[in-house]
Structure prediction request, 363 residues.
Amino acid sequence: MTVKSEHFRIGFSVVGLLVGAILSLLLLIPGASAPISTLRLEKKNSVIKTSIPNKSAEPLPITIQFFGDIMLDRNVAKAMGDQGLDYIFAKASQPIFDASDMRIANLEGPFAPGRVPTSKTIAFRFDPKFAAELKAYNFTAFNLANNHSNDMGRTNVAFTRKVLDDNGIHYFGDELDEGTEFTWVTATNTPNLASLPDNVAFIGLHNTYHNPDLKKVEATLLDARKKARYVIINIHWGVEYRRNSTTKQQDLAHWLIDHGADAVIGHHPHVIEEMEIYKDKPIFYSLGNFIFDQYFSTDTQEGLSVSLTLGEGKVKSVKLLPFYSEKSQIQLMDGNRLSAFWEWMNTNSRLEGKKIEDGKINL
Prediction:
């Protein structure tokens, strides 16, 4: 019995060694590294990528999805009622959110415990409870450099930042100032805290009634380039309800790229404006409204989301997702409406000889 047991133990060990050797050989096969996995939140119809370490020479690409203006006051708040943000996406027959490492938008107003007296004709105030809902929809960060962040006073600018901090949401930019202290540099794709292959810096700028100090902006860009491989500008600018960018916007966009930006994402006009490729880098002059209550025209109820894929030190491709809303409820464009949009965008954009095909453009 002792001899048989010993033979069994030896045989079992040999089999174990063979299995281990086979597994080791499989790991040496090119392309056998683990793929990216995804975390799907069924209720929110939302996907955020979770990166698994990649052993290949070139890091895995980073994908960031951008939206335009989010306004959670007035008729939007009334329409949402007890449903909250679920109301906004209740009629979407196709996913509005792309698989991405990060999800960014312009927060067009402050969180505040209550309204405060103001001389502004149009002044927004968002209920702080909506921050948790934005987190539930996997928003990673918000641009605060716009003409409504101070609507409830500077005290509630600080309150807004605290509310976002408390809900694990990042932010960047300021309505009245520029500087390195307003840049957000990240090495993780929150909310899952998975590591990104390279740092990404986000700079927010406001250029409606406020003119950015370009010396400060240049210093901020230089600082961002030292800290991150990719630098993305979010900028609030332009003329409301104008479908094409102004010369002022174009000159500033070119200047930003000449001084180190990898992409420029614009908002404020409340309508979609054209795209430009400048020195092989994308500029979106206005993404239009994302969540708003400007129900008075077709243009103000259409918006654009763009997903940038970053890799090898540049923006490698851009995916465009045009949508429309009815009473602030969002759906992706389709049929003749979508075809007309692609024709308009290709005709009005300056793409360095390239063309948007199947909603995507490679750079």
The longest strand covers residues 194-207. The CA atoms of residues 267 and 286 lie 4 Å apart. The mean pLDDT is 88. The helical segments are 2-27, 74-80, 85-88, 130-136, 154-166, 214-227, 247-258, 335-348.
